[in-house]
Amino acid sequence: MTQPHALEGQDLALELYALLRDLDPAAWRDDLEQVVRSRLDEISARLDELVAEMPSADAHVAKLRALLAQLSALIDEYTPNPDLTAAELRAQWQALRARLQPSYEELAAALREYALHVPSLRPINYARNALHVSSGVLGVMVIQHLLTGDRLVWVATTLAIFAWSLEISRRRSETINRLCMKVLGKVAHPHEAKRVNSSTWYITALMGLAWTFDPLLASLAVVVLGVADPAAAIIGRRYGRVRFANGRSLEGSLAFVGVGALGALTVLAVYYPEVSFGAAVGLSVVGALAGAIAEQVSRTLDDNLSIPLSVAAGAGLLAVLIGL
User: Fold this and answer.
1) 199 and 177 in one domain?
2) Of 111, 164, 249, 264, which one is least surrounded by beta carbons within 10 A?
3) Are residues 97 and 139 located together in one domain of the fold?
4) Is 105 in contact with 209 (CB distance < 8 Å)?
5) Which domain holds residue 253?
6) Is residue 287 a contact partner of residue 224, using CB atoms and an 8 Å limit?
7) For residue 117, is it within any domain?
8) What is the pLDDT of residue 42?
9) Quick one: pLDDT band at residue 82, thresholds 50, 70, 90?
10) Torsions phi, psi of 249, nearest 5?
11) Do 174 and 302 belong together in one domain?
12) What is the pLDDT of residue 1?
């Protein structure tokens, strides 16, 4: 496939990603309708132009060309009629978003085959957010009360082996894959049907944390991931205005640091009262900041792995420096 076609496909995918984020129900406002329509018209025109330019007989571009043509057809067929009420328009825009999202994920996967990265869509998912928070709180309780010392290591390692065995199985069997996605239900993101599930990465991170044999760092890592990641998602999608190239927002990152630091500080106050207030604040802020940076730079690596490991590394480094 010629590189110019791939690069232009990446540019279009990024524009479509931004549009689909704006169509998220949590971010949608009725006064955006005309702006969204104008942007969609521009994307549609560029899609048609690129599809026409791509050589139809070239096997190397056939897959990408077909995906771009599919997106163009969906836009042409399902773009809402402007002569509708605000409520009807809102419903039809959401219906269009639901139809475009699977095709966008297929395009993103095709571009990744050529080392061209575009982010996966992560719509607001309150069930997943609730699971995140509860897993963070439960993780701290398990580390502090149930699985201390070697038991935590072996349980976490066994769970990681099971999770990766399941990943291999669902890659080899579409039936197992469909069953897994059905079990995960509302807490799974659509792109996880074709990629390693975030829960597998989280369990892998737990195994790494367990092998450090440091319950303080492990507790900080799981609570920051548990409370800060959903806070960043909700604030970023609803109020995010300053966007980075990866689609995340400054507002979301600030929420991550603030909520993550508060969560970490609470854990230290409850379970490690011997740590001075100044040291506790330092560990909490540094750990949360390390997690926020990991979230920003994680592109091909799932942040359910990178965030907790980065939190533990950041807080652990500070603990060494201050002689804790």
Assistant:
1) yes
2) 164
3) no
4) no
5) 126-321
6) yes
7) no
8) 92
9) confident
10) -125, 155
11) yes
12) 42
Structure tokens belonging to residue 40 = 């969609």
> How many distinct structural domains can be found in the chain?
2
Residue 118 lies in a domain: no
**Residue 306 main-chain phi, psi, to 5 deg:** -70, -35
The phi and psi torsions of 84 (rounded to 5 degrees) equal: -130, 165
DSSP letter (8 states) at residue 30: G
**Cβ distance 42 to 72 under 8 Å?**
no
Query: Which CATH number do you get for residue 73?
Result: 1.20.120
223-253 exposure pattern, b = at least 16 Cβ within 10 A, e = fewer: bbbbbbbbbbbbbbbeebeeeeeebbbebbb
User: Looking at the predicted structure, is the pLDDT value of residue 2 above 60?
Assistant: no
| pLDDT for position 112 | 80
Our CA dihedral for 247, 252, 257, 259, rounded to 10 degrees, sits at -140
| 1-5, 105-109, 130-134, 191-195, range with the lowest pLDDT | 1-5
Quick one: three-class SS letters along 91-140? HHHHHHHHHHHHHHHHHHHHHHCCCCCCCCCCCCCHHHHHHHHHHHHHHH
- Across residues 285-304, what is the average pLDDT? 88
Handedness of CA 85, 87, 88, 94 (dihedral sign): positive
Mean per-residue pLDDT of the chain? 86
Q: Which two tokens stand for residue 50?
A: 């690129």
End residue of a domain, out of 112, 144, 159: 112
Mean pLDDT of 150-156: 89
